[in-house]
C-alpha cells in the first residue's frame, strides 16, 4: 500500500490517517525513502529535513491516536520551495549569492502550516532568486519535467512541482511573482493556485518583487489547493460542496493570449473549453486591448523592483550568478524613477478597466502557457532561444499578476498543457468552487 501513498492526493492521505488506514510515521518514512533513492532526487530536493519530518510525523500520529487531529492535512508530508525560511536549515533561494544562508526562524507560512499539522519533508530547487519561468538553474540544479526529462520543469517553483509529480511529496509550496506556481504546475500536470497579493504572508520568504510576490500550493487536486490555502494562512476552509458549472459564465481572453501559441497548448485548451461547455458553462470570447499595454509595462515594473531589492548583493559578487539571470536583474538599472512611477499609475488605471470588463463573468480563462517545456540543453547553449522561451512561458500567467487576480491552473488532459482561470482579487474561495466543478468536467 505504501507505494500507492506516493501518488494519492494530500486530502485522500488525510482521510486515510483519519480512518486509521495510514500511519503518519510510516507515510513520512515512505516519502523520505522515495526522496533519498529517486534517480532525480538531487535535482528536485536541495535538502531534506529528515529529523524535523520524523518528529512532526510522530506528533501527528500521537494526535491521531488520541482523536485530536488539527485538520485534514494533519500528518501529511509536503515540500517547501527553497526560498521559505526554515529555522536552522540552509535557505539559499537557488543562488550562490546566498550560499549557506541559515535563518533562525521559520517563515510565517511554514509556522501556520506546521500548526495545521503538515510535515515538512525538505526544501526544493528553484530558479535562481525566483527570476525565471523556465526552471533552468545551472548554479544549483535543474529539475526535469515529468513528461520529458530532457526538458525543464517550469519555474521558478520547479522543484516544488516535480516533488509532487514524481511522487516525492504529497504537495509542494511555491511562490508566484509572474507565474512561478502556475507554469510548473501546468507543465507537470498539476493544480496550481496563485493567491492574491498580500493574502498569504511572505514574512520569512526570500523576496523578488514584493509588490507582486505571492505564495501558493502545487498539488494534485482543487480540494488539496483549498486545504493548503487554509493551512498556509491559518484561515477557514473553502466550501467545495455542491459545485456546478451549469450557467457559469467564462470569458476567454482573446487579447495577446493566443499570439504565437504552439499547437499542443492550443489543442489542450480548446479541448478543455469544449468539456466545460458540455458541463453547462457559458463561454464568450472577449478582447481587452489594454492588457497589451499592461504586458508592455512588465519590464518597467518587475526588473527595477527586483534589481532594487538585490542590487547590492548582486554587484558584490556577480560572477557566481547564471549570466541570463544576472542580465535580467541588471536590466532594471536602466529604468528611471519617473518611468517606474508612471508605469504604476498606468497599470492601476488598466486594473480598473479590467475589473469592469470582467465583472459580468465568473472567471477569465486562457491557456496557462503558450508553449511546452523547452529543452534544457538548448536553453544553456542558445541565448536567443532562452530569451524567447522565457518571455513566452510567463506571458499569459503574468496577466494575472499584473491585474492582481487570484488564479488557478488545471491540467487539460494533454501532457504539459494547462487551462488557467483568473478571478477577482481575494475571491479565492469562489474561484476554487468554480475550479472544483471544472476539474470534474475535465476529468
UniProtKB/TrEMBL annotation:
* MF term (GO), any: transferase activity
Task: Give any Pfam family that matches.
Answer: Amidase
Matches recorded under InterPro entries: Amidase, Amidase_CS, Amidase_dom, AS_sf
Residues covered by the Amidase domain? 27-432
Keywords assigned by UniProt, alphabetized: Transferase
The lineage's top-level taxon is Bacteria
Q: What is this protein called?
A: Aspartyl-tRNA(Asn)/glutamyl-tRNA(Gln) amidotransferase subunit A
Naturally occurring in which organism (per UniProt): Litoreibacter ascidiaceicola
Q: Name the lineage.
A: Bacteria, Pseudomonadati, Pseudomonadota, Alphaproteobacteria, Rhodobacterales
Amino acid at each position: 500500500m505504501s507505494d500507492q501513498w506516493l501518488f494519492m492526493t494530500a486530502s485522500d492521505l488525510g482521510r486515510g490517517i483519519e480512518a486509521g488506514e495510514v500511519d503518519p510515521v510510516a507515510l513520512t518514512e515512505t516519502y523520505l525513502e522515495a526522496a533519498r533513492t529517486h534517480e532525480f532526487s538531487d535535482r528536485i530536493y536541495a535538502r531534506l529535513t529528515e529529523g524535523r519530518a520524523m518528529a512532526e510525523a510522530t506528533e501527528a500520529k500521537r494526535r491521531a491516536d488520541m482523536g485530536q487531529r488539527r485538520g485534514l492535512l494533519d500528518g501529511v508530508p509536503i515540500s517547501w520551495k527553497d526560498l521559505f525560511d526554515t529555522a536552522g536549515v540552509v535557505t539559499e533561494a537557488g543562488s550562490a549569492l546566498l550560499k549557506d544562508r541559515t535563518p533562525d526562524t521559520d517563515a510565517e507560512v511554514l509556522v501556520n502550516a506546521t500548526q495545521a499539522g503538515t510535515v515538512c519533508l525538505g526544501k526544493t530547487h528553484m530558479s535562481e532568486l525566483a527570476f525565471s519561468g523556465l526552471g533552468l538553474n545551472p548554479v544549483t540544479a535543474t529539475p526535469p519535467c515529468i513528461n520529458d526529462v530532457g526538458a525543464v520543469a517550469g519555474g521558478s517553483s520547479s522543484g516544488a512541482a516535480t516533488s509532487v509529480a514524481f511522487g516525492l511529496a504529497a504537495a509542494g509550496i511555491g511562490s508566484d511573482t509572474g507565474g512561478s506556481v502556475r507554469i510548473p504546475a501546468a507543465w507537470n500536470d498539476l493544480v496550481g493556485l496563485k493567491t492574491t497579493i498580500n493574502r498569504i504572508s511572505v514574512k520569512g520568504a526570500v523576496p523578488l518583487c514584493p509588490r507582486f510576490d505571492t505564495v501558493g500550493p502545487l498539488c494534485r487536486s482543487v480540494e488539496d489547493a483549498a486545504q493548503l490555502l487554509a493551512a498556509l494562512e491559518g484561515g477557514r476552509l473553502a466550501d467545495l460542496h455542491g459545485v456546478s458549472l451549469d450557467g457559469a459564465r467564462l470569458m476567454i481572453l482573446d487579447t495577446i493570449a493566443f499570439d504565437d501559441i504552439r499547437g499542443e497548448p492550443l489543442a489542450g485548451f480548446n479541448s478543455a473549453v469544449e468539456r466545460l461547455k458540455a458541463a453547462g458553462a457559458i463561454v464568450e470570447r472577449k478582447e481587452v486591448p489594454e492588457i497589451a499595454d499592461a504586458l508592455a509595462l512588465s519590464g518597467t515594473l518587475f526588473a527595477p523592483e527586483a534589481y532594487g531589492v538585490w542590487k547590492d548583493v548582486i554587484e558584490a559578487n556577480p560572477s557566481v550568478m547564471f549570466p541570463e539571470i544576472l542580465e535580467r536583474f541588471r536590466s532594471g538599472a536602466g529604468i528611471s524613477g519617473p518611468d517606474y512611477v508612471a508605469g504604476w499609475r498606468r497599470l492601476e488605471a488598466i486594473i480598473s478597466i479590467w475589473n469592469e470588463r470582467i465583472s459580468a463573468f465568473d472567471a477569465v480563462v486562457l491557456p496557462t502557457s503558450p508553449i511546452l517545456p523547452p529543452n534544457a540543453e538548448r536553453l544553456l547553449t542558445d541565448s536567443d532561444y532562452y530569451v524567447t522561451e522565457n518571455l513566452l512561458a510567463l506571458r499569459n500567467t503574468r496577466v494575472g499578476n499584473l491585474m492582481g487576480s487570484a488564479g488557478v491552473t488545471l491540467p487539460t488532459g494533454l501532457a504539459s498543457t494547462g487551462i488557467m482561470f483568473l478571478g477577482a482579487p481575494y475571491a479565492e474561495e469562489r474561484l476554487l468552487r468554480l475550479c472544483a466543478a471544472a476539474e470534474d468536467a475535465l476529468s
